[in-house]
Amino acid sequence: MTSPDQFAGVAAAVRTELASVTELAHVNTFHPNAFDWSQVDTAAELDFLSEVVYGEPGHQQQAVAYITKELAQLAEIERHVSTVMALVMGELHDLRDAINTGHELHHALSCFAAEEIQHANTFYRYVRGLSGVEPRVDKALFDDRLDVFRTDDHPYVKLVALCCSAYVGESVITVFEHRVDGLDPQRSHFFTRLLHTHGLDEARHVKIDHVAMKSLYPALTGVQQDRVRQLLGQIEDLNRRLAMSFQEVTTQALGVDFITANPAAAVQLEMTRGFGERIFAGDGTLHTVDEVLDADLRDLVTAFSGTSQVHGTSTPTLSAAMPPIAGGTR
Questions:
Q1: What tens digit of pLDDT does each residue of 154-198 get?
Q2: 29-43 per-residue burial string, b: 16 or more CB within 10 A, e: under 16
């Protein structure tokens, strides 16, 4: 059960932070009409994608296939996040606790949801232009993934679980954004501009995640915190199934093995595992990815992206060369 004053102690800080995060959401934002789509698949662009993914030229087909799979899959994840955000807002409609009084929470979640559906729109347009295919996976497990949140849990339980599920992927794509910015500081390539502009929204989403993780989650009861972790486990399992399915259909559609000897895929997997395993401490407390970077993971992030922080502000300095991965990938 939730008491009326359960969130009173964090309400002011939450509302103030959400207002600050969304203050410039109308300025620093992402829309597909802003791009020159004729630049998606030029020869120079495909050469750059090979540098981004493999650290060297000569892997254009594999790089295209890898990016097609990842961004089509990400489009589905973001579509799902948008839908669950709308579900949570509907369930918050008649709830007037100290956080959900005023406009700040509804505004922040509305911006988040609108931006995520626009990301899905744009990434699908990008992969169609880049590869000529749009990978489709049997309804993208959408109903199964939505059913995870069709429960009688408190809306904040669902919101925290959703933010935690999105957070790892948002952190990984942020590291990729750092990498392309380091390789292309003038942002002369379409892919750099795509990830940079996407990152304007993602930076706000990560800050909203941090509010959910650092303020809302500690205010939940022990039982509610357990439910957050249960919902998170369910959605992560389904997202892993989704990733495997997207890999299969993309391989079939393009006829390219884009996983074997792919250093970017290996780095991505290592970061995904490392971030996911560390954000929840043994005692159940939640931490940001920058708080849990050990020496090995920090070295991996730095070698790949040129920055020693994921959501920090350090300036990338990077060569195209890829970091070594345990077990060998090249």
A1: 999 999 999 999 999 999 999 999 999 999 999 999 999 999 999
A2: bbebeebeeeebbee
Residues with Cβ within 8 Å of 240's Cβ and at least 6 positions away in sequence, in order, are none
**Would you say 177 and 198 are in contact if contact means Cβ atoms under 8 Å apart?**
yes
Nearest of 39, 211, 197 to residue 115 by alpha carbon: 197
**Helices marked H in the chain:** 8-21, 43-54, 60-91, 104-131, 142-147, 155-183, 190-211, 217-219, 222-254, 263-278, 295-305
Residue 319: partners with Cβ closer than 8 Å, 6 or more residues away: none
Measured CA to CA, the distance from residue 119 to residue 14 in angstroms comes to: 26
Q: Please give the angle made by the CA atoms of 59, 170 and 195, to the nearest 5 degrees.
A: 50
Tokens of 273: 């595992």
68 neighbors 254 (Cβ within 8 angstroms): yes
Q: For a pLDDT cut of 70, what percent of the chain falls above it?
A: 93
Of the candidates 115, 122, 88, 110, the residue with the CA atom closest to the CA atom of residue 29: 115
Residue type, 79: R
| Closest of 298, 246, 240, 242 to residue 269, by C-alpha | 240
Each residue of 155-165: b (16+ CB within 10 Å) or e?
Answer: bbbbbbbbbbb
Phi, psi of 141, deg, nearest 5: 55, 25
Give Cα separations from 151 to 91, 96, 254, 280 (angstroms). Answer: 11, 20, 39, 23
55: its two tokens: 């650290």
User: Amino acid identity of 124?
Assistant: Y
Helix axes 190-211, 43-54, angle to 10 degrees: 50
Q: Which residue has the tokens 């749009």?
A: 134
Size of the chain, expressed as the number of residues it contains: 330
Using the Cα atoms of residue 245, residue 265, residue 205 and residue 298 in order, give the sign of their dihedral.
positive
